[in-house]
Amino acid sequence: MDIKQIQDLIRFVAKSGVNEVSIEQNDFKITIKTNQAPTYVTANVGESAPIAAAPAAPAIAPAPAAEVVAPVADTSKYITVKSPMIGTFYRSSTPEKPMFVNVGDEIKPGTVICIIEAMKLFNEIEAEVSGRIVKILADNASPVEYDQPLFLVEPI
Question: Of 16, 134, 145, 148, which is the most buried if we count CB atoms within 10 A?
């Protein structure tokens, strides 16, 4: 399995509600566990496992691509701020604190715009451009991919 297939599998497991998935192929073994309540699924490991995994990757990949293509055509004058890592996107440091930025806020290089949690480490993401936030593309407390668009910024 390559990294893209593993990422797709992680997303699938997170959305499906399954508590644990183990896949074993020739010289490769992976187990993915979540903190959700256990759901038990029994599968016959053999030729059916790779066939089931193969359609999942293409089915997941085109959907985000279609979503990204439409806004880019309408918003070509904007700068897209993308995620520098895989993790969980947060708009504030705690639920009680105000959001780092909102639509309409002006930012400059060095302004903290969000936090991405990766492996229990909270990484402050700072703006690298000056401008005004036009749109927030990721939902608070949602998983994000590397290079996933997070914000649209109108340059000043």
Answer: 148
